[in-house]
Every structure is written in C-alpha cells, then in structure tokens.
Design brief:
five-stranded antiparallel beta sheet; mainly beta; 490 residues
Length: 490
C-alpha cells in the first residue's frame, strides 16, 4: 500500500523556518558507497572521527546519566590521547547530568546547520521533558575547528502521546528533500519525526510527524536508517519496530519505507520484497555499485541463529525492487555455522572497506560461541560486488583471532555493535566493534564493563595488523557494569 503521508501539521519546536517543499536536486548518477564512510568529521580536518556512547555511564555520581566519547581521527587513525568526553555536565551543553537520563542512547552525525562542519545529534531518551519522566529530548552538539566544543541545542518532541515517550531513542540524518542540506529524523517509542532544513545554533526548524500505518494501530519504532534507494538525489527513510504494541504474546515486525522528495515523503507499508521475519532495519549503502543504495535488515531466521537480508535499490526504490538476498552463517563461503542464539545480524554497518567502490557489510553476532565460551561473540565482513553480497571472500574475527587485542571470554558479547568509518583517511573504512560484556577490572568477579576495538581496512579486507582496543580505564573512569562504548552509529 503506497500513499501520501498522513502527517500532522508541521510544528515549530523552537522556531519555524521553511518546509519540506524545496526544489529537488538533479537525479543522482551514483549513490554514496556508505554514509558512514564520509561523514563524522567534527573538526573539519578531513578525517572521520569516532563516537562511542555509554548511556549507562555514571556522571558526577548520577547513575545512568550517560556520556559520549569522541576520538578524533588522523592519518594514524584514532587515539585515546585525542579525545573528549561529553555529557550534560559539559560546558555549553544545556541542562545537567541527572540519574537515568541516558545521554547517548542513540546518535547520528551530519551538517545540520550548513556551516561545513559535521554536527552530532545525541538522543537523551529518558530525560524528563514536558513534565514527564522518560519523554526524552535530542541535543545537537555543533562541530567546528576545535571539534564538538561549540555548545549545543536542545530539541524537543511532541508534548503528549506515545510518540513523545523515549523521544530520541533512534536517530538518522539524511537529505530527505534533495536540496543538498541534511535533515534529522527522530524516533520515539511509537513515532517518527522529520525536521526541515534550517537548524541554527539557537533554534530548530519545523517538525513533521510521519505516519506509521493505519490509524488506530499501535506500532513501535525501534530502528531507522537513511539512504537514496531510488537514486533521485533525495534520501529515503526506512523504519522498523514492533507491529502491535498491544499484543504482548505476538509482537511481529513492521517495516515502513518513506520515499523522500521535494514535496514531502511518500509512505509504503511493508515493501513486498522484504521478509518481515528479517525486517529489523540496520544500515544502508551501495553494495553492488549500481548508483542506488541498498537496505540491510536482519532477523532471527528460521533456525533462530540470525539472518541478514539485503534489499537492492533501483529506480522505484525498495518497494519496486525484485532483488532480495538472504545470507547467514550457513551461506557458502561464510565462516562458521549458525546456531540458535548466535544473533547473527544483531548489528550491521555498511561502507567500503577495500576501496574498490563496492560497499561491504560488517555483521555482529554477539551470541556466537567461541570454542567452549558461550556468548563470547564474533564479527564478519561480507564483501560487496557487482552481483551484490555473497559469501565469497567473507572474513570473521573474534578476540581469539591473531592480532586482535585481548582474549575471548564467555559473555563478552563481542560484536554487540559495529561501525564502519574511514578513521585514517586512506579511503578504506575501518571497523569499530563494541563488546558490552567485556570484563575490564580484574577483581575476581565477572562484570559487564564494556570495551571497543578498531580493525583497519585494507585492499583485501579487514586486517588485525595495527588493531587497537580501549575501554573506560583510558579515560580515568572506574565505574562497573555500565557497558562502556556499547552504542555505535551503524
């Protein structure tokens, strides 16, 4: 079913400027290889920067106030010595660190004020807003020559309703009207907003509420991603979530596809080529290099081990595409074997690791056993090609792979989150991996402290040569069981 958005009247959040009805750009001749391969340069030095978020971080004694850590890129990659920790107690950021705000529950990067520097939108999904606990807000940290040191703007969602609850739990940035300027999409518990162009350092533009299906149905909005799936120069939005929040016994999955354009966004419910048992939105990028972004989703699959679905874009976008590929650990060429509880595809990111112009897919399986170690976790790289993604040339890594720092342990959950981005400017994306269950402080008691790893991209794929890892110790933090660095933009 395709129909125009039944959107609410656009609302001013701080100040209204402009609308979605802007002139559409010339149709694209080639889509980006992967959005994360190019953006994220907050200080404008030409190197992408890395953000790892810890929404459960204790800040000034406030439990789960939340914090993000920014590691600035360079010709040698990232280093904990070139970093900053930002929260609501940071100078220039409105508000204050309070217990259970969960600053950093999501984040997305893009140039929202059009000044040439990438900005960082941060979800604070449990912030008290409009007089309600857990209504949530979004805070936009402004980029500049010195990085994210230019203050922030607080953006509010609806004042009532399910869409206001946990506002900022999901974020995506895209040029949805095709005018060359980034816009911000925000998900709450059960709704999605898209902001127009025109953010300034002091005011947000008008906000439009998107439909999530037939009136009267209660649907969750769990994840979202942007990509130009129809190649028209305006990015589109894919959103997934629980199909029926009122049914505790059988909450299926729905997927909404919103085609961008100068005259607004057009909604398609559950595109026909998308298997709904693998419809959790993960990432987007041009995997087959045909000029159209492709959508990556995932689900538990028939065996419960996890499966990845790739929905190839085309002139009609995802709804009119007849090409869908399913891939899992039992696909020829993919290392390992699928087992229930592996959660293959629970995390995914898309960008060009090898520099050949084809976007590749990094996949996490945080439940993967490594030998006799339950839930140690693993990651894979699936390589793009003219025929799309297959198992050919696939790679896998665990903490027991030669060159990867550390050692695999039960319940590490290596691969809980993954992010591809070019951190050293060599035109090959590097892979950041989160393991939220990593035990960092050796006191004889098992904890889920969390840590992150970076594997470098190369012409042949990912390499453990020069791999690095870091955790809260590098920043002078001593809290336990906070899942440090467990949130990564896909």
């Amino acid at each position: 079913m395709r129909k125009n958005l039944l959107a609410a009247t656009a609302m001013a959040v701080v100040a209204a400027t402009g609308g979605l009805g802007l002139t559409l750009a010339t149709p694209a001749t080639a889509a980006p290889v992967g959005r994360s391969a190019a953006d994220g340069d907050f200080n404008g030095d030409g190197y992408a920067d890395l953000v790892v978020a810890t929404p459960k971080a204790t800040v000034n004694g406030q439990k789960q106030a939340g914090q993000v850590t920014v590691l600035y890129g360079s010709a040698s990659g990232v280093s904990t010595g070139r970093s900053a920790m930002i929260g609501q107690n940071t100078s220039g950021v409105p508000g204050s660190a309070e217990a259970y705000d969960q600053f950093g529950s999501s984040y997305a990067a893009g140039d929202l004020d059009g000044d040439g520097y990438t900005d960082l939108a941060v979800g604070v999904s449990s912030e008290k807003s409009a007089g309600h606990d857990d209504y949530g807000i979004v805070q936009i940290l402004w980029g500049g020559p010195r990085g994210l040191t230019n203050g922030a703007l607080t953006v509010y969602g609806p004042s009532v309703g399910a869409s206001a609850y946990l506002y900022g739990s999901g974020l995506a940035v895209g040029d949805f009207d095709g005018d060359g300027r980034d816009q911000l999409a925000v998900a709450g518990f059960a709704g999605v907003s898209v902001f127009d162009d025109g953010f300034t350092r002091t005011a947000a533009p008008a906000r439009t509420e998107l439909t999530t299906g037939p009136e009267g149905e209660s649907r969750g909005t769990g994840s979202l991603t942007a990509g130009d799936f129809d190649g028209d120069g305006a990015e589109d939005l894919a959103v997934s979530g629980a199909d029926d929040l009122d049914n505790d016994d059988d909450r299926g999955v729905w997927l909404g596809y919103y085609a961008g354009g100068a005259h607004g966004m057009t909604y398609t419910e559950n595109p026909a080529t998308v298997p709904l048992d693998a419809a959790h939105v993960r990432a987007a990028g041009d995997i087959d290099r045909d000029g159209y972004d492709d959508l990556v989703t995932s689900g538990s699959g028939p065996s419960g081990a996890g499966v990845l679905a790739v929905h190839y874009g085309g002139p009609g976008g995802i709804p009119d595409s007849s090409r869908t590929a399913l891939i899992d650990q039992d696909t020829a060429g993919v290392p390992g074997a699928g087992e229930p509880g592996d959660y293959f595809g629970a995390a995914a990111s898309v960008a060009d690791v090898t520099g050949d112009g084809y976007a590749d897919i990094a996949v996490g399986a945080p439940g993967e056993d490594v030998g006799s170690l339950d839930g140690a976790g693993a990651v894979w790289l699936l390589k793009g090609s003219a025929s799309g993604v297959t198992g050919a040339g696939a790679q896998s890594f665990t903490q027991d792979t030669a060159g990867v720092p550390g050692a695999a342990e039960s319940a590490d959950r290596f691969g809980y989150a993954v992010r591809l981005s070019d951190l050293n400017g060599d035109s090959r994306a590097d892979l950041t991996i989160a393991a939220h269950g990593e035990d960092v402080f050796d006191d004889g008691v098992r904890h889920s402290d969390g840590a992150d790893w970076v594997l470098r991209g190369s012409g042949s794929g990912l390499t453990a040569s020069g791999a690095m890892s870091f955790n809260e110790k590098a920043f002078g933090l001593t809290y336990r069981n906070k899942f440090f660095g467990s949130v990564l933009e896909s």
